[in-house]
Design brief:
alpha+beta; four-stranded antiparallel beta sheet; single chain; 5 helices
């Protein structure tokens, strides 16, 4: 699934601002600061009764899909200096989605093989660097300041 589709789906299915949602027990690890990151780890399993290389490929894709969704939800929940969540800012200014997609495309994916055909994957979005999440958030906040 492309980042474009995933961003649109998450924005469409997330409760509107002011609505309450249950806390996510599998929340992403978010570390702020210049060396910060947003990181999630997922374990993927193949369909029951399936084994071998194809099963492992399906398990890897399952883990990757869930990791992408969780990291996106964590990023959208980040609070801007204005007090808004990034999700709300993207609803108001859809033109910022392309920048988020570029940041997400730079995410690193690492994995480990588990017993059987299960796979563990870790997806990390860095805060630092030219195309990092920190720069993107600064740009969104700057645009919000100009709009006010």
């Amino acid at each position: 699934m492309s980042w474009d589709i995933l961003i649109a789906l998450v924005l469409a299915t997330t409760p509107t601002p002011g609505a309450t949602a249950a806390p996510d027990p599998a929340a992403a690890e978010v570390v702020a600061g210049p060396n910060g990151y947003v990181r999630v780890t997922e374990i993927g399993h193949p369909p029951l009764g399936m084994a071998g290389a194809r099963a492992k490929a399906i398990a890897r894709e399952n883990a990757r899909t869930r990791a992408r969704e969780r990291v996106l939800k964590a990023i959208l929940a980040l609070q801007l200096k204005s007090g808004k969540k990034l999700e709300q800012a993207l609803r108001e200014r859809p033109d910022h989605r392309a920048g988020l997609r570029a940041v997400l495309n730079r995410a690193t994916l690492s994995g480990a093989e588990l017993t059987g055909d299960a796979v563990e994957l870790t997806l990390t979005v860095r805060m630092d660097g030219e195309g990092g999440l920190g720069r993107y958030l600064e740009a969104v906040q700057a645009a919000e300041s100009r709009d006010q």
